[in-house]
Amino acid sequence: MNQVTVRGRRFIKSIGEKEIEERVSELATSLNRDLEGEDVLFLGILNGSFIFLADLYREIDLESDISFLKLSSYEGLTSTGKIKELIGFDEMVEGRTVVVVEDIIDTGRTLNKIIEDLKKKGAGRVVIVTLLYKPEAYHGAHRIDYAGFEIPNDFVIGYGLDYDGLARNLRSIYRLAEE
Ligand code: IMP
Ligand code: MG
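Above: the input record for the complex with magnesium ion. Below: its predicted structure, written as tokens.
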């Protein structure tokens, strides 16, 4: 499947299943090494990170637990800039290493809000892990500690990422074709 059509728009495969799998393993290896001995909470940002984090977390051998947060700044193809917090930080973060796991970092607005909130809650250290990163779009202040793939400023779907709620179940990542 080298291309897919979602709601009448054409998307072309850009990162294959195998390549994703290998990169996720490499990220897990780095985290296992770098965070050894720390008290770690993995915090997945829903909905997009659920597939990435499911694969990543099964390769983590740190003593750690996992929780999820739901925020949203996207409607359709562009960031609205409005971020709604739907389910909150009920997990204890105080003094802990919080590994924020994102599907993709675009403008960084979502991330800024999360980091702010985690600091208010007294997180010891905040580490950012994202499968995809769009450096051209990023305006955030925080360093992106671990990025699976740096990609151009294209809209992408698959492996957890959606277009209007669809296509999260695709095993590869596809980018919107220019028309
Ligand atoms: P930011 O706040 O602009 O960095 O947007 C981050 C969130 O927007 C991500 O967690 C995604 O859910 C969504 N997003 C950003 N870029 C894309 C994309 O290319 N495809 C699908 N969702 C995206
Ligand atoms: Mg997201």
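Notes for the reader.
Helices lie at 17-34, 50-57, 109-120.
Residues 45, 48, 103 surround magnesium ion (ligand 2) (CB under 6 Å).
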